[in-house]
Amino acid sequence: MSTDRRKFLKHLGTSVLLTSASLTSWxxxxxxxxxxxxxxxxxxxxxxIRIATIGMGIMGFNDTRAALTTxxxxxxxxxxxxxxxLDRAKxxxxxxxxxxxxxxxxxxxxxxxxxxxxxxxxxxxQIAIDAMHSKKAVYSEKPMVxxxxxGLAEIKAQQDTKMVMQVGSQRVSSIAYKKAKEMYQxxxxxxxxxxxxxxxxxxxxxxxxxxxxTDATLANVDWARYQANAKVKxxxxxxxFFRWRNxxxxxxxxxxxxxxxxxxxxxxxxxxxxxxxxxxxxxLTYWKDGRNVPxxxxxxxxxxxxxxxxxxxxxxxxxxxxxxxxxxxxTITGSEGVIDxxxxxxxxxxxxxxxxxxxxxxxxSLFTYTEAQQxxxxxxxxxxxxxxxxxxxxxxxxxxxxxxxxxxSNEHFANFFDSVRNGTPVVEDAKxxxxxAAPCLACNDSYFENxxxxxxxxxxxxxx
Length: 464
Known about the structure:
Keywords: Oxidoreductase. The protein has helices at 3-10, 20-40, 58-67, 83-93, 103-107, 124-133, 151-161, 175-185, 223-226, 238-242, 253-270, 371-384, 387-390, 408-422, 430-449; strands at residues 49-54, 73-79, 98-100, 114-117, 137-141, 165-168, 192-200, 277-283, 296-303, 312-319, 327-334, 337-341, 346-353, 393-401, 453-456, 461-463. The protein is built from 15 helices and 16 strands. It is of the alpha/beta class and 464 residues long. The longest helix has 21 residues, at 20-40. Strands 14-13-12-11-7-10-9-8-15-16 form a 10-stranded mixed β-sheet. A 6-stranded parallel β-sheet has the order 3-2-1-4-5-6, sandwiched between helices. It is 36% helix and 21% strand. The chain folds into 2 domains: 3-19 and 172-356 and 390-405 and 428-463, Dihydrodipicolinate Reductase, domain 2, CATH 3.30.360.10; 36-171, NAD(P)-binding Rossmann-like Domain (Rossmann fold), CATH 3.40.50.
């Protein structure tokens, strides 16, 4: 960042006004230079990274596609518990692709440098730990863990093995979130006090009623391996396999799937390590298809004052039958403005500064006094305050959108592979990933146990 720009941001909110044009041009110039360098870099033989994806469902295929946009990355194998997905992987990436239904065969291969873990949530932690002990770099889909009790063990595994591990919440690599963080730190909205964040959907697929193949039989699905780590074993049910997000035994509900995205972005921008109190409510209102997790959930999450930020409150909401057609946004509110992050790589900053004068008249008790009292009060008020002091300061909106063609998922993987190649810190390590996931999983605990959960964000543990 240039010295002039540092000075500019330092004085933001005092003597300098930021325009949308200036922000967009700076952001585009800086980030395009970075991306052009990546695109132009020709990976040599020593730069090649061979990856394998474990779990070839929706996220597995999408993550693989995003990973392969990075120069010098090759797909060496895939693992899934449904044979049809292994066949599909060969259709896309060649019949010679190594495929298996046992992830340990992936970890045992010496020609694989890194793995993408995109299984059902209940397998994330165990596979990640096994992979790091097998000297594989790990890209783990969020949430990092299925249970809060798994987090510290996974962090320890990363610390003990020194392997690169990154959690897959792409907002942490988003150019829009980087720019919003700059603006927040520069004081663009004053002192933060509250955040509202939501993810709404209004369709069956968005509510996890995914298409089930016609050959979803026990002959094609390794059901025993799928529920090997489950406390309660069930007879084979294709819904529990192909629509696993609907079941607590394998998934983490709307909190683990979507609240995690919201908190990852919030923690990134504010620098927070996490909240101190969590409470949630909700219910199963529409998608009564056998699932045992709610389709509407709201949470109130309280963040205490720390050296990183003042105290603030976060409200989280997911609605799977929202009449708005489906939407998502995060609004960070401060004493002098708001950062409104849309459902993508964009944001708007609105700035309003309270008038110095307290105001008089209008929706006020002034009119209830005698005319003589009103006149005396108004005369005194007008002598004390200037016209400028009486006005709320309204500044032009700042609107930012990522450059055309930008993709935060691709950027997240590029950052991961930079760490694998160069040993540079990942953008979302195990501690960050757990600190984002744990409060969301605590939302589930609060919902099912009907109580407030107290959380020690520094030491990453529930306070009994």
